[in-house]
Amino acid sequence: MAHILITSGPTRQYIDPVRYMTNGSSGRMGASLAAAAIAAGHDVTIISGPVQVDYPIEARVIPVITTEEMLAACELEFPSCDGLIGVAAPCDYRPERVEGHKIAKTGQPITLHLIETPDVVATIGAKKKPQQWVVGFALETEDARFRALVKLEKKNCDLIVLNGPEAMNAAENQVEILDRAGTSVALLSGPKEEVAAGIMQAIQTRLMK
Amino acid sequence: MAHILITSGPTRQYIDPVRYMTNGSSGRMGASLAAAAIAAGHDVTIISGPVQVDYPIEARVIPVITTEEMLAACELEFPSCDGLIGVAAPCDYRPERVEGHKIAKTGQPITLHLIETPDVVATIGAKKKPQQWVVGFALETEDARFRALVKLEKKNCDLIVLNGPEAMNAAENQVEILDRAGTSVALLSGPKEEVAAGIMQAIQTRLMK
Fold this sequence. Notes:
The structure is a homodimer of 209-residue chains. The first copy, chain A, is α/β, with parallel strands linked by helices and 209 residues long. Chain A is built from five helices and twelve strands. Helices cover 28% and strands 31% of the residues of chain A. The longest helix of chain A has 16 residues, at 192-207. The interface between A and B is large, with 37 and 37 residues. Chains A, B: It comes from Blastopirellula sediminis.
């Protein structure tokens, strides 16, 4: 019986009061992982960006909008949790400057200077205690396996789950779970519910005592 | 009995295969206007960006993603319609160049060059026949009334409906309808269903023979 923190869904980074950057993450994989964790007898807290998905009623859900808010909520919650599953797709760039008024069209191009947002999983990974674990996700379009392993190392994850952009806002998913040695722990494909159960199984076997 | 074209919801402009720019338009006002038009006995075709809202089953719905797709669908449908209600919030900037691969984080800022997308309502407004009408929406945060009237003129609308950013993804709305003379035709506030019925009433009284 563990207390598992799950980040889920996209975040938004506003350009002005109306426009923002985001991605198509639906929160379905987060909801499926929460359901799998609850079915396995664990407590679940979800920190979620704006989504339409229904999370299990047994889970405690903390809604956030931006990546900074998601990180702040994680830093507050993680110390009382056994592990983090970072399946959210936080917006990782934000405008250097957010306009206070809606940018009016002038017919001219505009230039947006973007800076990186803090990395939620890396920040938590750097702070985790020896008995805590962190599972990251990597969505890659190029050199997928290599980049996923670099992320696992950089974010101090115990396992990383690799998937492609076709997973976003889809009912099905295909993932590969990699461990710190670079070994492929599992290849899972099918409905997100089944894939989530397989990921939970790997976490229980490898990371929970 | 008229055939009314309604654009609804946001559009998305992709930066790379994962990230995009958009806004919080929910499609609720479009759905409410469609319901009001159908209740008044009209045929409705909706061209909608990605939304979660349920449109009336009596409406024909054409789903689109980008502003360019929304415009292309409008250009195809408008010639057989009596009027257009442009309540969508099309993304009005797009990256000059869309990256084919997910942009990898390097720790460094990035610069995004944005150009304006074509204006859907203005393009249709410029082509409308004498017996056709166009109703635009203006979402403004500054100099609202002045900017709305400039848009009405520039987009060749017959009426323009002015609202604020607080309308986005909300159940209620507060709007002012302005005509080509700059006269305030109606001030409406309340649940979107009621505001939509009021807007439909103004369209029927002023624009339909």
